Amino acid sequence: MHESTKDHAALAAEFNKDEQRVNWHDETLWWIRQKRDKNVHQLPEWEALREAASQIKFNVLSNLHDYLLQFEKNATANGVHVHWAADAKEHNEIVHRLLTEHKVDRMVKSKSMLTEECGLNEYLAEHGIEVIDSDLGERIVQLAKEPPSHIVLPCIHKKKEEIGDLFHKYLGTPANVADPQILTEAARQHLRDVFLTRRAALTGVNFAVAETGEFVVCTNEGNADMGAHLADVHIASMGIEKLIPERKHLGVFLRLLTRSATGQPITTYSSHFKKPRKETPIHIILVDNGRSVQLGRKEFRNSLKCIRCGACMNTCPVYRRSGGHSYHTAVAGPIGSILAPNLDMKKYKDLPFASTLCGSCSNVCPVKIDIHDQLYKWRQELVKEGYTPAAKTISMKLMAQTLSSPTLYNAAGKSGRFVLKHMPFLVSNKLNPWYKEREMPEAPKESFREWYKKNN
Amino acid sequence: MNVARVGANRIRPYAANGIQECTKRRTFKKMNSRDKILSAIAANQPERTALADISGFKGAEENLQNKYAAVLTAIGGRIYFVKDENEIAATIAAQFPEAKRIINLVDNLSIGNFETVISDPEIHNLKNVDLAIIKAKFAVAENGAVWITEKEVQPRVLPFICEHLAVVITDGIIFPTMHEAYQKIATLEEYGYGSFIAGPSKTADIEQSLVIGAHGPRSMSVFVKV
Ligand code: SF4
């Protein structure tokens, strides 16, 4: 897990020092957002699908207790071992215990943001167990000793030359080779050896079906399947909110997930694990870690509908220009900024403020989470609890002052025009540091400050 | 879903389950977290809302072969519409002249030298399979996927570990969307493992450049019998 004493604004300022990289990061993510749009617009029923998904997920939240029991019963009947972990620590302990029981000290892992949330790799390393991440992007950040910066695209912040240097150092590729084709082939060879030699595999879970007790894992690379099918024991870690009621609902979610994530119609592999292979056990760990608390927060429980597609990150102007690491939490971006304060209000008090509240996230979310509304509500909640970040307090006060001044309002004419015209103040001001290095549109003849003085 | 049956679970006291199952100390510890989580959820979950009716979602039935071909090609797969096994065999022979180790799970395919059964229980020895030829139940037009289960494809790792994958849709069925696909799955024999496979394995993790052949097959050829 990413630990930092700096807040989002300070970390974003660091990321913003390299303007070229920021522009590139911004454009790459926007390109993915456009791919999403192109694919999504081919489905006339898209909005109906989103609505159905949102309703199904809300039904899950409203009946989670019974669905969990139903899942446990059916999975157990299928021969899958079900474990319950109240928090990150207990999750890590269960994984460790299972590995010890199987006398395994090297494990291969496919993408699981939950294990990032739990700090599993670090925990196992402390106990002498080596974990190799098998998703290419995750392997890259693992070699760089960094956390993923994006839930779907873990090394989206890295340039191919940096990846070439890492592979040269750790995988023995020739120096200064940055061709993605060559680097991917090197990773394929390296990880193939890992798949063939590891006796334990851990995967995440995209969806688990209460009706059948099965779970579904989606990858493009095939790494989850390679790991799980070759190992002697398969451990799957899932947050309790990943349940869906019936198998047929997978039709809705699998249609939405990858179109939203990368603009593909589906991931290459959507694998349904129902029963273990002969004599190779499957263990599934149901993890709470604050989710049952979030479920009780009326304003924020919708965040538990999230299917981790990453669309809200790709579209977010703040995420695109501040980078995933500036959020100093496992799940970055708009949705992460709602989930993190639930776990630790003090530590993540800055995150709900790392947003322009433009609403683009809510527009793309495939399960229709009211993301920007929830961010706004978190701000109110945090202010109420006395957790407002300093810089943001000033900027919020100024904003409140400006918007509450009738003179100002009248002078500017229509309020819509006022906000549009003068929004750059709110975003480019030094008090909003993720815009520091950003070239802003040409300044108006009169600076806002002068204008403000004159008109007040 | 049987709501009545699920609903009844709620009134059954967990302690009763616990007494039956708690034969080991470790299990007992596990039960505690389980109960803690479940009771927190019961206390915090909102009032029950109805499930959405998804029976209205259907895809258009026209032009499915063309649509499937277009999508599969776009995601890096190859499509062949064939009339019989001889045509499949001829295409495979022409496409994979270099393939040394071929595992074929499709009946009546007359291609040179291949294994039909995997007698070696050591699945790791499949690492040098150049080409696997497998059967799939059906394909899905909207996303290029085929549906396989471990009933036809054994062992599970075969379609992932092979260098190249060829899939034969024996009944030639293509459904418009995932909704029809899951309707069909509900009528088929239950599986222990099943997967939608859509194209060759791929990654775009390095600067979003698409590279075909991540950890799984470097190509996927789909044969649809028409
Ligand atoms: S909040 Fe919505 S858009 Fe963001 S990752 Fe979750 S499902 Fe995707």
Automatic annotation (TrEMBL), chain A:
It holds the Pfam family LutB_C. This is Lactate utilization protein B. PROSITE patterns: 4FE4S_FER_1 (PS00198), 4FE4S_FER_2 (PS51379). The keyword Iron-sulfur applies. It comes from the Bacteria. Residues 296-326 form the 4Fe-4S ferredoxin-type domain. Gene3D superfamilies: Alpha-helical ferredoxin (1.10.1060.10), NagB/RpiA/CoA transferase-like (3.40.50.10420). Keywords: 4Fe-4S, Electron transport, Iron, Iron-sulfur, Metal-binding, Repeat, Transport.
